[in-house]
Amino acid sequence: MSSAATGMELVDLSIRIPLPGTPRRWVYPARDISLPFHAGSITAIVGESGCGKSVLALAAMGLLPAGTQTSGSIFARDIDVLAATESELRNVRGRGVGLIPQSAATHLTPVRTIGSTMAESLAIHGFPARPIDIAHLLRTVELDAETARRYPHEVSGGMAQRVLIALTCALEPTILVADEPTSALDADTAALVRRQLRDQANRGAAVVLITHDLVAARAAADHVAVMYAGQILETGPARVALRAPAHDYTRALLAALPENGLIPPPGTPSSLVDPHPAVCPWHQRVGVSCSAASLSAVGADHLVACDSAARC
Ligand SMILES: Nc1ncnc2c1ncn2[C@@H]1O[C@H](COP(=O)(O)OP(=O)(O)OP(=O)(O)O)[C@@H](O)[C@H]1O
Ligand code: NI
């Protein structure tokens, strides 16, 4: 790992998943991604739907689909997750890397009460929890103790999301990956979740916030990485990159916010199937010639991809 303060680091990470039903064709959700996630900070990964954000979350947990091929590394707690054995991964998951998954409700066991699922999960990771501990955890996400006696189908999607957040945070993971943690929540609960993520960063976790919501990223994150078609096009301090962006894709995402007139990004999202290695998908989408140069510095800790001539 390059620095003691790095909680997780992606190094030259590429991932390809077999395209279902078509031999020898591949989906490329990550291409040549190098990205640090600093301990004590929240890093947002933003980008349109389908650009590969959730696949990165699964990769960090060692949960890529069968048949997936990877190159490069994902260093988490000094282990390369991509090279780890299943027993090493069992040690990494939970207290090394905690994942708050997209659609959390489907991750609770349907035939067991929420309290027993929480108690079992905590015990597996070495935290024996009494009912009073479960009640306390539920209160941290503003759920009452009685929620422990309910079954998943008896609570709303937002409540299930809060249960998963309480459970994941209770393990105090070194790296906390939250995949769209607020998309199913009302504004008050979303603010509560953002406070939880900040608390986790303050105790030293490297927090990864995956979201398509730039307003949420700007409100919550210290650093941001802007992803398009499996590549990082811009990365830097959130207050810089999401206020004075250097890449035209980041500008296009910001233009789509209500405050900026809801102008959708031009063209249609690029396919991730067998992309041309020497063509930049974003600039191809907008009809500008660009050879997809690697990231270069435009300011302190602020990196941007693409030929400068290609930037609109
Ligand atoms: N198990 C899988 N098998 C085949 N392709 C997959 C699999 N999982 C993801 N993909 C493909 O990888 C690409 C990236 O998907 P991913 O879910 O990571 O996007 P995302 O940026 O998280 O989008 P969203 O915001 O909609 O969740 C998509 O083209 C998707 O179809
Ligand atoms: Ni480009």
Automatic annotation (TrEMBL):
Q: Which UniProt keywords apply?
A: ATP-binding, Cell membrane, Ion transport, Membrane, Nickel, Nickel transport, Nucleotide-binding, Translocase, Transport
* SUPFAM superfamilies the UniProt entry points to: P-loop containing nucleoside triphosphate hydrolases
The question of whether Zinc is a record keyword is answered with no
Matches recorded under InterPro entries: AAA+_ATPase (IPR003593), ABC_Ni/Peptide_Import (IPR050388), ABC_transporter-like_ATP-bd (IPR003439), P-loop_NTPase (IPR027417)
Pfam families the record matches: ABC_tran
In this chain the ABC transporter domain maps to 8-254
User: What is known about its subunit structure?
Assistant: The complex is composed of two ATP-binding proteins (NikD and NikE), two transmembrane proteins (NikB and NikC) and a solute-binding protein (NikA).
Family annotation (PANTHER family): NICKEL ABC TRANSPORTER, ATP-BINDING PROTEIN, OLIGOPEPTIDE TRANSPORT ATP-BINDING PROTEIN APPD
Q: Which family does it belong to?
A: Belongs to the ABC transporter superfamily.
Protein name, UniProt field: Nickel import system ATP-binding protein NikD
**Species name:** Antricoccus suffuscus
